Backbone:
């Protein structure tokens, strides 16, 4: 039995994976959820760009200097990106959480899984489809927002490419978790669990930063552990770091110990994630996907 | 040997869910090209069996081979068609797109898709609805579509789980016609049904399953015993005469009729001769046939007392 399982685990058929990927993209893109997300995103981009365009005249006494505008813009941008990442996390969770459970419950899975494809093909196909959608959405939204800001204020965050990478990775991590849960639980339960985990990771990150500021090892360890168990918050901090102008970080470093507590603020990060952390995230995604395949293979339809 | 040459071979296939036994020691062989009926009441273990055979669920114990390959073999599924009892297809796709998707999943050569899809739509009578969304289909049309999906690519074996559950009489007749065509083409058909008439009309052999156990299996004619009884209306037979009938079977007297249970049509001439020899006047002789339904009920241990005697 195990030999059979391993053989077909390796026997992933790219053709079947691609069929499921296309099906997932088609199915998800025609959902109203995606349309709502798109409209909401455009509204947010419109409102923030409008607000930023009014920054020059915000003060009664004197117009803001370009430097002040850039400083304020950088902080607004972080908040906007947080909003993007949060809404996207919600959407990704609910899109992924019903992927497998939904097909099984409706009966659609019966006709598909009796075709000559493996359950690994199905899991990978769905994951690739959702990842593609997430990447396309984030790239599009971030690029439009950044171009608008660049035109209005001439401000550009230090590392827009890494920003997109971190945001995509954060969402994909959460989506992968939701997909794993969807092999066992219904969409609603899976969505709630994945979002709960997302919240815990976020709070854990803040706790860890507080622990660090006050040199409390136990609390620091809690933060580190949550960032390893569910790397969403660690990746969010990577995204914040890539949005942080160098001047802000210099300022923070100059502030010394007192400034370090600023790290407890989930909207500030002085250090980018180390390479080891990025490697961990990749390993985490691969491991959870493997677990998803295993769990789905064990699932009786 | 049987495992390799037959369309289906199972050995003590057993499936337990937490506390309940869904299927116990299913051992049977279905030769290639046969239309095999798997008959039983709801909850007897029919769908469980099909799911085990298709690799959707794992057996608790036992073994099985489908088209010569052990359970769960991925390559074999290329040659298998399946209409689930719970038939559901992507509602947001058009019927034609669902069929194309399954051509793709079944790994049929791309050049054949268009013909396969058109053929399937025609076979199941949906040729005018290929461009409509499945979500707008009635239950019956969705089941027809499911049947079309199961027939794609000329499978060697087709599993049909209650294929007419949502169909009207015309649809039922169409399905019987499709099954006959499949048989003519040499396709093995595994038909799950609780409808006796359906099975009676198309199946070469049946297995009757109840509470997860096969209670009878064989050609329909064998299952339907012809020696059920003979009913005779006669007068002038004395007690001794009635007793003499016992050598033909169990004798029951009611309303002027003498029923000899267990006697067959072959016994009628001798029975009548004996009665007449003993001075009886015979008015009517009716050999009894058990309907499949009665046989079914008696096999399932239903109320035997209620078995009605019908000519």
Residues:
């Amino acid at each position: 039995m195990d030999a059979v399982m391993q053989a077909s685990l390796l026997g992933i058929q790219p053709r079947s994976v691609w069929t499921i990927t296309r099906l997932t993209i088609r199915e998800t893109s025609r959902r109203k959820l995606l349309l709502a997300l798109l409209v909401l995103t455009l509204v947010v981009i419109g409102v923030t760009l409008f607000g930023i365009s009014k920054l020059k005249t915000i003060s009664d006494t004197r117009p803001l200097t370009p430097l002040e505008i850039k400083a304020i813009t950088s902080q607004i941008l972080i908040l906007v990106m947080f909003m993007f990442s949060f809404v996207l996390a919600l959407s990704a969770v609910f899109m992924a959480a019903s992927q497998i459970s939904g097909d099984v419950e409706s009966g659609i899975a019966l006709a598909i899984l009796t075709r000559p494809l493996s359950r690994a093909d199905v899991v990978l196909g769905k994951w690739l489809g959702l990842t593609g959608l997430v990447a396309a959405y984030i790239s599009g939204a971030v690029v439009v927002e950044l171009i608008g800001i660049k035109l209005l204020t001439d401000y550009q965050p230090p590392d827009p490419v890494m920003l997109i990478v971190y945001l995509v990775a954060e969402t994909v991590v959460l989506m992968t978790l939701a997909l794993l849960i969807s092999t066992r639980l219904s969409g609603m339960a899976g969505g709630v669990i994945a979002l709960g985990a997302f919240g815990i990771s976020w709070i854990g990150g803040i706790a860890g930063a507080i622990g660090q500021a006050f040199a409390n090892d136990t609390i620091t360890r809690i933060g580190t552990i949550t960032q390893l168990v569910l790397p969403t918050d660690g990746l969010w901090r990577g995204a914040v770091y890539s949005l942080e102008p160098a001047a802000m970080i210099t300022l923070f470093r100059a502030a010394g110990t007192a400034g370090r507590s600023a790290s407890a603020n989930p909207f500030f990060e002085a250090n980018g994630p180390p390479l080891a952390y990025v490697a961990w995230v990749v390993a985490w995604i691969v491991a959870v996907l493997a677990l998803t395949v295993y769990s789905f293979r064990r699932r009786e339809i | 040997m049987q495992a390799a040459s037959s369309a289906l071979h199972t050995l003590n296939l057993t499936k337990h869910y937490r506390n309940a036994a869904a299927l116990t020691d299913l051992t049977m062989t279905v030769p290639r090209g046969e239309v095999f009926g798997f008959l039983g009441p709801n909850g007897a273990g029919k769908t469980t069996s099909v799911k085990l055979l298709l690799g959707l669920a794992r057996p608790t114990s036992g073994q099985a081979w489908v088209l010569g390959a052990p359970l769960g073999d991925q390559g074999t599924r290329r040659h298998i068609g399946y209409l689930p009892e719970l038939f559901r297809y992507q509602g947001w796709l058009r019927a034609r797109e669902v069929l194309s998707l399954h051509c793709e999943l079944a790994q049929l050569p791309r050049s054949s898709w268009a013909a396969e899809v058109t053929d399937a739509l025609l076979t199941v009578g949906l040729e005018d609805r290929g461009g409509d969304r499945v979500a707008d289909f009635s239950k019956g049309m969705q089941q027809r579509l499911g049947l079309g999906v199961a027939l794609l690519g000329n499978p060697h074996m087709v599993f049909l789980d209650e294929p007419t559950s949502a169909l009207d009489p015309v649809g039922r007749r169409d399905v019987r016609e499709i099954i006959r065509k499949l048989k003519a083409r040499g396709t093995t058909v595994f038909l799950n049904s609780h409808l006796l008439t359906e099975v009676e009309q198309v199946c070469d052999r049946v297995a009757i399953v109840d509470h997860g156990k096969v209670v009878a299996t064989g050609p329909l004619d064998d299952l339907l015993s012809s020696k059920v009884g003979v009913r005779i209306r006669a007068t002038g037979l004395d007690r001794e005469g009635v007793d003499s009938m016992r050598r033909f079977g169990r004798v029951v007297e009611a309303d002027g009729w003498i029923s000899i249970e267990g006697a067959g049509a072959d016994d009628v001439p001798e029975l009548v001769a004996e009665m007449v020899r003993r001075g009886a006047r015979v008015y009517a002789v009716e050999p009894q046939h058990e309907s499949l339904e009665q046989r079914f009920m008696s096999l399932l241990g239903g109320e035997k007392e209620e078995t009605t005697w019908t000519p």
User: Anything to note?
Assistant: Chain A touches chain B through 23 residues (CB under 8 Å). The two ends of chain A are 18 Å apart (CA to CA).
